[in-house]
Amino acid sequence: MTFGQRLSDAVAKRGRLCMGIDPHPELLDAWGLPADAFGLAQFAQRCVEAFAEDAAVVKPQSAFFEAFGSAGIAVLERTIASCQEAGALVLLDVKRGDIGSTMAAYARAYLDAASPLAADAVTLSPYLGFGSLTPAIELAEQHGKGVFVLARTSNPEGGAVQLATVSSTDGRSVAQAVVDAAAERNAGASPLGDVGIVVGATADHGLDLSHLNGPVLAPGFGAQGATTDDLTRRFGADLAGVLPTSSRDILRHGPDVDALRAASARVVATLPGE
Ligand SMILES: O=C(O)c1cc(=O)[nH]c(=O)n1[C@@H]1O[C@H](COP(=O)(O)O)[C@@H](O)[C@H]1O
Fold first, then answer.
1. Whose CA is nearest to atom 9 of ligand 1?
2. Per-residue pLDDT for 274 more than 90?
3. To test the ligand 1 pocket, which listed residue (57, 59, 245) has its Cβ within 8 A of the most ligand atoms?
4. Cβ-count burial of 47 within 10 angstroms (0-12 exposed, 13-18 middle, 19+ buried)?
5. What would the pLDDT profile of 21-77 be if each residue is shown by its tens digit?
6. DSSP bridge pairs for 89
7. Is residue 192 scored above 90 in pLDDT?
8. C-alpha distances out from residue 189 to 5, 111, 139, 167, 213, Å
């Protein structure tokens, strides 16, 4: 089954909110956990218990695990596996992007079903050229997995690159060119293609997403200030194909698992159609 199909089924059953697992040092401290691999493992385990049975997609942020070296990576491996066992799709947030041959190695690390770090999808950066991502997109497709390519990010600095025009003869923004390249890969897929994009909910994106035929990850919801009204204004009243993602705004309610569940349920209740 393709990733697009698996994602559509999961969202139909479990809803569209993507739960971020971002073990910030400040959150470990606020949860009364030590700033070491043991504290990280406890944090991740509570997130698995709180979210993985209910959310369609869970998004661990790799950086916070990598910060603890090999012990942190071991926790990430276990977290990915536990979320998948509980039925959630794992979108590993690694924002990789490299020359094609190295990209193939990153793809094997995260998208080859035989890898210990295999997730269901990864975030990718297209700023070495969208074409450099081809080995990852192809491997993802072979293994029924997906990718989410950064188009218009939620941070204020992103516009300097992403809103630039492609060339004097091609007046599109760089972000629109990323959307169009993803749309080309997704053409003809049903119900959704495997190539998603990332578009922050924090600012008006000005993009034409009508032909994308793929999922849109919308970060910036919650802690970075975007509200449900911002989401519907920017992505349409029914949020078709859109996965709003929230990390700190929900995680700050931990460490109690029931309190985390209640916080995510409160956010889900604000989304249209949920
Ligand atoms: O790819 C992402 O997930 C991402 C893209 C983007 O444009 N902005 C963005 O905030 N993110 C990630 O989404 C998460 C947002 O976390 P909160 O701001 O705590 O909800 C972090 O893991 C970010 O790295």
1. 219
2. no
3. 245
4. buried
5. 999 999 999 999 999 999 999 999 999 999 999 999 999 999 999 999 999 999 999
6. 57
7. yes
8. 9, 20, 17, 30, 7
> What is the position in ligand 1's atom list of the atom closest to the CA of 22?
22
| Cα 274 to the center of its chain, rounded Å | 20
- Per-residue model confidence (pLDDT) at position 61: 98
Q: Using 50, 70 and 90 to split pLDDT, how confident is the model at 272?
A: confident
Atom number of ligand 1 nearest to Cα 221 = 20
Does residue 95 have an active-site annotation? yes
Q: How much is the pLDDT for 273?
A: 78
Mapped to the 3 state alphabet, what secondary structure does 225-274 carry? CECHHHHHHHHCCCCCCEEEEECHHHHCCCCCHHHHHHHHHHHHHHCCCC
Q: Encode pLDDT of 153-163 as tens digits.
A: 999 999 999 99
Q: What is the number of the ligand 1 atom nearest to the C-alpha of 91?
A: 3
What pLDDT does residue 181 have?
Answer: 98
Map out the domains of the chain with their CATH numbers. Answer: 3-270 (3.20.20.70)
Question: Buried b / exposed e across 83-101, counting CB within 10 Å, b at 16+?
Answer: bbeeebbbbbbbbbbbeee
% the chain with pLDDT above 70: 100
Average pLDDT over residues 133-144: 98
Q: Nearest C-alpha to atom 17 of ligand 1 is from which residue?
A: 247
Q: Which of 13, 59, 95, 145 is catalytic?
A: 95
| For ligand 1, atom 13: residue with the closest CA | 219
- Residue 7, both tokens: 């994602």
Residue 104 is inside which H or E element, if any?
A: helix 100-111
Q: List all residues whose CB is within 6 A of at least one atom of ligand 1.
A: 20, 22, 61, 93, 123, 153-154, 198, 200, 219-220, 222-224, 245-249
